[in-house]
Amino acid sequence: MPDGWTQRAENLALPPQVNGLYAVYDGLDSTWWNDARLNGDPRSIIMMQGMLPETLAVDPEVALGTASKVWQVWGDTKIRGWVRPVLPINSARIGKPERAMYQLSAYNDWKFDDAGFAIRGGDGGTRPPFLPGNARFLYVVAHCAADSHESNGDVPDFSSDGSWTIKHEGLLKAL
Fold this sequence. Notes:
Blueprint: H1 5-10, E1 17-18, E2 21-22, H2 43-46, H3 60-74, H4 83-93, H5 97-105, H6 131-146, E3 151-152, E4 155-156
Antiparallel strand pairs: 1-2, 3-4
Helix pairs in contact: 4-5, 4-6
């Protein structure tokens, strides 16, 4: 590690919180959840526990509460772009595997053409193959299959009712 990086990392400010939930900016009050100018992109506050490796700077209980609030506020209809794959990764990481499987499999936005390629944003507005869409879908599947908050061995317990059987070969945990 280059000189000075450890000192900088140890002195970074903690992520901002409002009423026990993470916020997109420091200095906000709880009304930001209802402000369309501020709440249009929930990625930044749920990626802290999901895409990024675990760190002492992120409180797991605060992250869990924040993820639940994001799911309540945004739900299916407002999720677009990279938020769609971030949600199931976050859900797997915080120990909500059934929510992760729903977010991965039940969205109307995950649409595929007759050749099996992801259609951009579900709108059919791009010619297949839309490789970024395929890549993000496959990344989510791999991430959720190989890396979750709680797993028995290599494969997470995605459903307590046994409705999902997950198998993979050679996937390594992300970060």
